[in-house]
Amino acid sequence: MPTDTRILLVDDEERILQTYSLLLEDLGYYVRTASQPEGALRLVTQDKFDLAFIDQFLGATTGLQLIQELSKIDPELYYVIITANGSAGLAVESLKKGASDFITKPFFVADLLKSIDHVTKKRELDKEKKKVLLTLETKVSEKTEDMKKTYLEVLSSLAQAIEKRDHGTYGHCRRVSYYSSLIATALDLKENEKNELKAASMLHDIGKIGISDIILGKQGPLTKAEMQTVRSHPQKGVEILKPLKQFKSILPIILHHHENYDGSGYPYGLAERNIPLPARVIAVADTYDAILSNRPYRSASSHNEAVNELIKHAGKQFDPNIVRAFISLKPINIATLSELPAQF
């Protein structure tokens, strides 16, 4: 009766190896034998097995110790411990340390076949279990993405509501998200990085929800205390989003989007590559849109003026590579809010 089960027999008694390997081969099993732990390790490195029968006493090495070493080579290999010491304690220890079954000497071929059948069924059940878990993980992941999308839509609406309070900035987050996506494409970022950047761009100013309208709409220069309040919005944004585990990965982006490339920014004075790449991207997109927007204390500037400002501060406020990537976008699509694609 042919079978595709591949078996390794490990025992320091050559007589046992010869007898049972011949019997199992006659029954159609693929069998290899080893009389020493070193031989078993070599065989598992070179060949693929489904099940290993291992004698507990192999000189200086025990069968349970050998199981630990073999598992490092092939995590999917199943084990049966063979021993003349049939104590309940050893049986329990064997099962705890990775064995799927336990048989005592002397034994007969029927005992081996019974054990093979038991372990084969266990392998099949484990495979089914893995499939079910993988399916569950996929469904949970899909639900998580749905929840994240819902949260993002709600928070994005909230961010835009805040912009109505901050005169001259309505639509700012959507435009920053759009410009950031252009830069992300120019930098050839991975899809998951683009998605994180998009979410962080939409929510980068969410912390301004905790800042008063008086400060946000002030016509003249801010006092030192008012400036400190405004500069607290990255930390406030993190505090708002921290309870939502779906946004854990974008918290460092939001926290550091006002860091400067030369280390002169806030809140922690990070510099160069210590600033997360997406935060460096947002810094360029954020500034570009701010220069093109009317503010209570100044009028909007032109595209050329904005680009010249980015070039002037490249290597100081901005990552030069990101400025180059932004400038390379020809023609840069300077869209109004109504012209932006729906997803932004």
Structural write-up:
This protein is of the alpha/beta class and 344 residues long. The chain has 2 domains: 6-107, Response regulator (Rossmann fold), CATH 3.40.50; 146-339, Hypothetical protein af1432, CATH 1.10.3210.10. 54% of the residues lie in helices and 8% in strands. It has helices at 14-26, 37-46, 63-73, 88-96, 109-165, 172-186, 191-203, 213-216, 224-230, 233-241, 251-255, 277-291, 303-312, 320-327, and strands spanning 6-10, 30-34, 51-55, 57-58, 61-62, 78-83, 101-104. The strands form 2 sheets. The protein has a 5-stranded parallel β-sheet with strand order 2-1-3-6-7, with helices on both faces. A two-stranded antiparallel sheet has the order 4-5. α4 (88-96) links the parallel β6 (78-83) and β7 (101-104). α6 (172-186) packs antiparallel against α7. The two termini are 64 Å apart. 31% of the residues are buried. The model is unreliable at 334-344 (pLDDT under 50).
Please summarize what this structure is.
The protein has about 350 residues and is α/β, with parallel strands linked by helices.
Number of DSSP helices? 14
Largest sheet: 5 strands, parallel
Give the overall average pLDDT. 85
The CATH superfamily label of the largest domain reads Hypothetical protein af1432
What does the radius of gyration come to?
33 Å
Kindly report the spatial arrangement of strands forming the biggest sheet.
2-1-3-6-7
Number of strands: 7
Q: What best-fitting shape do the alpha-carbon axes yield?
A: elongated
Taken in chain order, the helices and strands follow as: EHEHEEEHEHEHHHHHHHHHH
CATH structural architecture of the largest domain: Orthogonal Bundle
Number of domains: 2
Low-confidence stretches: 334-344
Provide the helix percentage.
40-55%
Q: How far from one another are the termini?
A: 64 Å
Beta-strand content bin? 5-15%
